[in-house]
Amino acid sequence: MQSYLRFIEEILIDEDRLQQRVEALGAQINADYSHATDLLLVCVLKGGVLFLTDLMRHIHVPHAIDFMAISSYGAGARETSGIVRIDLDLKQNIEGRNLLIVEDIIDTGTTLAYLRRLLLARNPASLKICTLLSKPSRRLTDIPVDYIGFEIPDKFVFGYGLDLDELYRSLPFIAAVNPGMYAHE
After folding, report:
1. Which of 107, 146, 154, 163 is catalytic?
2. How far apart are the C-alpha atoms of 174 and 176, rounded to whole Å?
3. What is the set of domains in the chain, with CATH numbers?
4. Whole-angstrom Cα distance, residue 112 to residue 92?
5. Exposure b/e, 48-68, CB count within 10 A at least 16 = b
6. Contact 18, 160 (CB under 8 A)
7. What is the pTM of this model?
8. Residues near 49 by beta carbon (within 8 Å), at least 6 away in sequence
9. Residues with Cβ within 8 Å of residue 30, at least 6 apart in sequence
10. 107 has catalytic annotation
């Protein structure tokens, strides 16, 4: 038995649905940026990596990538601390560039709102947000999201880049954690 199976309450989004939606998001981004120049995809690490990799395969307008690591969760935490920390900043100057933040999940919105303010202060030509998952029921901060893969219920999820205590990011689907099983670990 695979070690992750015991943690799964249900598969929320299977691999086929994920890939179809990522392709559709890529098509929408292509249409929206068809005349744009200097598009920079800013991936929020670590959870956004699989999403970014698959998404950029469907973005046919010229684009560059860069990475940021930000955190408002401590190790093993399930709730944001409210304090945002920049662990890795962009390597490129973004002034005058078209930015697309690529995020794995928006929960309360606190971390992403902070990141958005930080990047807007660096004077990009435009800034949009693309998230694979959104939990609108948990939102504490009103933040504009331009591209949403899926809206999900208030469940703790893992797979497809999202971790369960740094494990199982490589799963090709998104699963909800069985809270009863995980509580015993």
Report:
1. 107
2. 7
3. 5-183 (3.40.50.2020)
4. 19
5. bbbbbebbbebbebebeebbb
6. yes
7. 0.90
8. 43, 161, 169
9. 58, 59, 60, 61
10. yes
Phi, psi values for residue 94, rounded to 5°: -105, 0
- State the CB neighbour count (10 A cutoff) for residue 78: 10
Picking from 74, 59, 143, the residue whose alpha carbon sits closest to that of residue 106 is 143
- Tokens 């699989």 correspond to 50
Q: Which residue has the tokens 């435009």?
A: 126
The per-residue pLDDT for range 88-123, each reduced to its tens digit, is 889 999 999 999 999 999 999 998 999 999 999 999
Q: How far apart are CA 24 and CA 36, in angstroms?
A: 19
Residue 65 confidence (pLDDT) above 70: yes
